[in-house]
Design goal:
- Helix content is about 25%, strand content about 25%.
- It is α+β, with helices and mostly antiparallel strands.
- The protein has 2 domains: about 170 residues, Clavaminate synthase-like (Double-stranded beta-helix); about 100 residues, 4-Layer Sandwich (Double-stranded beta-helix).
- A hairpin with a 7-residue loop joins strand 1 and strand 2.
- Bound molecules: fe (ii) ion (FE2).
- The site of fe (ii) ion has 5 residues, from loops.
- Fe (ii) ion (FE2) binds next to loops.
């Protein structure tokens, strides 16, 4: 098994020559792979097999996989695998094209995301990752102190209702009135600290989301917009980003508490097919 850093600044680790199940040498046991993820934020496993059963079993090393909703986005026979593709009429759209952590709309957000690449575009279609622990450390002292006590407002119900109406109008998803109601019922408006702390290591990270986080609580709108701009500018500074160009067989795993990510669309006419599993956060 061979491990190589993905960046000069400590974000990301590439792992080759591992055994995806427990059958051979180079097994990535649960505690080992969880510790590597916690340390590096993003893991790139090269040549993972195209086998949903192996994939599902491997994902469980990180915790409990979340069920995919709506059901039409599931890989057949696998309620925890979400097909994400730019091929019209198949699965869900490929990835959020804005800076985000997965599952920020939930009271207990997704902890880990796994994304397997079944078909890679020859041009573009990369995923960008921003190191949110490095971003927190890079803030000017005064700003770092100020944000540590501040919370973000995530008006999830209102945003989800608009998203669903738009998706239905654009025919990217079919949703019954009952599905819509059930989905909205599960959502609450959320107030979440701008800075999270890893209970195991005490390491702190910024927590932002360009879609669900709308403003900072307790300060006026102009001040909130200005501060958020500074936080996003710091977080997405090119010196703290990793850009992943996809190859068939890549499995990327990321820790939503320490990185945020953004999908770049594939070049026109290029197909991208991925399969995603998300792991439920701990209450
Ligand atoms: Fe995402």
């Amino acid at each position: 098994m061979q491990m190589t850093g993905l960046t000069e600044f400590g974000l990301g680790l590439r792992i080759e020559g591992f055994s995806p199940d427990d059958s051979g040498p180079g097994t990535l046991a649960g505690p080992t792979v969880r510790a590597l993820l916690r340390e590096f934020g993003v893991l790139h496993l090269v040549d993972f097999p195209d086998d949903d059963d192996v994939y599902g079993a491997f994902a469980r090393r990180f915790g409990r996989p979340e069920e995919v909703f709506p059901a039409e986005h599931r890989a057949p026979g696998h309620p925890h695998i979400r097909l994400q593709t730019n091929v019209r009429g198949v699965g869900a759209n490929a990835g959020g094209q804005y800076w985000h952590a997965d599952g920020s709309f939930a009271r207990i957000p997704t902890s880990v995301t796994l994304l397997y690449c079944q078909e890679a575009p020859a041009e573009e279609g990369e995923t960008l990752f921003a190191d949110m622990r490095a971003a927190y450390r890079a803030l000017p002292d005064q700003v770092r102190k100020a944000v540590s006590g501040l919370r973000g407002r995530y008006p999830c119900r209102e945003i989800a209702a608009r998203d669903m109406d738009r998706a239905v109008a654009m025919k990217t998803v079919r949703l019954s009135a009952e599905d819509r109601r059930r989905q909205l019922e599960q959502l609450r408006d959320i107030s979440r600290p701008l800075v999270s702390e890893d209970p195991g290591t005490g390491r702190r990270a910024l927590h932002l989301n360009q879609h669900w986080l709308r403003e900072i609580e307790g300060i006026d709108a102009a001040e909130s917009a200005e501060l958020l701009q500074l936080l996003y500018d710091t977080a997405t500074n090119a010196s703290r980003l990793y850009r992943h160009r996809w190859t068939e067989g890549d499995l990327l795993i990321w820790d939503n508490a320490s990185v945020m990510h953004k999908a770049i669309p594939a070049a026109v006419g290029q197909r991208k097919i991925t399969r995603r599993i998300t792991i439920a956060g701990e209450p």
